[in-house]
Design goal:
Number of domains: 2
Largest sheet: 6 strands, mixed
Helix content: 40-55%
CATH architecture of the largest domain: 3-Layer(aba) Sandwich
Shape: globular
Radius of gyration: 20 Å
Strand content: 15-25%
């Protein structure tokens, strides 16, 4: 069995989850890692516990002079895992890091939505030219295998519509407002305390995060050519407890739904009224996506849409796909 050498770029919540998941997997060895301030390389393999402890105590994983860009360009690895925070405007610095690795004929796995939403065609083209894998299951719906489910599980089916809950933060807030009568402000504060919402939750609340995921689905799975500007967005900050209560009285729930119609070329993220027995009425931070198909009918994927280990699960699945396909 081949030992696959990994360069891990990003040591935030997801990066730490990836490190822990790979720590005891004999198929992989992390030989390089970088955060936003430093990097470290050890061809014999990094001690993950030491690496994470140093990051926690000092805020850096290694040498301030060793950047993620240098590791991508110079280190001797087989697969680069890029899990830094999303930049939805330029995709940088992740976009350049990923491109560098692909041009060196290195496989790349990422959960970073920015580069995939902005340049998926270019990056997939480079990967095909270099005969390497470029996989990004973790960019949409966390642990839910929605990309692989559509590409392989529903292969041969014409997709007529896709819609669902793609942001766990909003779903948690709406669930708490509906179930406990919390105000929007109270539910948001609770989501922050539990780590479900960032200090600046605007991209979640205004629908941008769900819109980016919709763009990735549209372009990479359905052959569309759209950008974030093509998505009609409405967030949840204007929703009141009274609105949720009225919906409840009428046997309905309100969820932030991302939807697309490939035939009409329409994409939208907005709060929608749904019957309580609709499969998209999920609780907490769960994600749910319904795919309407020509032959299989409507298929709904439900699961944990965010989290360190959950996203690491998607990354591990991509890694194993690469090892299975290219270890020949």
């Amino acid at each position: 069995m081949k030992l696959w050498k990994i360069a891990l770029i990003g040591l935030g919540s997801v990066g730490r989850g990836v490190a822990q998941v790979l720590k005891d997997n004999p198929q992989f060895i992390i030989i390089a890692a970088a955060d936003s301030k430093s990097g470290v390389i050890n061809p014999s393999g990094l001690d993950i516990e030491v690496l994470l402890a140093k990051k926690k105590t000092t805020g850096r994983c290694g040498d301030p002079k060793l950047s993620a860009a240098r590791i991508a360009a110079e280190a001797d690895y087989d697969i680069l895992i890029e899990v830094t925070p999303t930049n939805s405007v330029t995709g940088e610095p992740a976009l350049s890091t990923i491109k560098t690795a692909l041009l060196r004929s290195k496989h790349v796995v990422t959960s970073n939505k920015g580069p995939v939403s902005l340049a998926s065609a270019e990056l997939l083209g480079i990967a095909e030219e270099k005969n390497v894998g470029f996989l990004f299951e973790g960019t949409v719906a966390g642990a839910v295998p929605i990309l692989r489910g559509i590409k392989y599980g529903l292969a041969g089916n014409k997709i007529t519509a896709l819609y669902g809950v793609l942001n766990g933060t909003c779903n948690y807030i709406l669930t708490r407002m509906e179930g406990e009568g919390l105000t929007y402000e109270q539910a948001l504060a609770e989501a922050r305390d539990l780590g479900y919402a960032e200090a600046d939750p605007s991209s979640d609340i205004n629908g941008t995060d769900a819109a980016i995921k919709l763009v990735i689905l549209a372009n990479t799975m359905l052959g569309m050519n759209v950008t974030l500007a093509d998505v009609n967005q409405t967030g949840i900050s204007g929703l009141t407890v009274a609105a949720l209560h009225m919906a409840n009285i009428n046997g309905q729930s309100i969820r932030l739904i991302a939807s697309l119609n490939p035939e009409k070329n329409t994409l939208e993220v907005s709060p929608r009224l749904l019957p309580k027995d609709n499969p998209l009425v999920v609780s907490g931070t769960l994600n749910a996506v319904t795919v309407e198909t020509e032959y299989a009918g409507a298929i709904t994927f439900i699961g944990r849409g965010a989290g360190s280990v959950e996203t690491a699960s998607a990354i591990l699945a991509d890694l194993l796909f690469i090892t299975d396909k290219y270890d020949r």
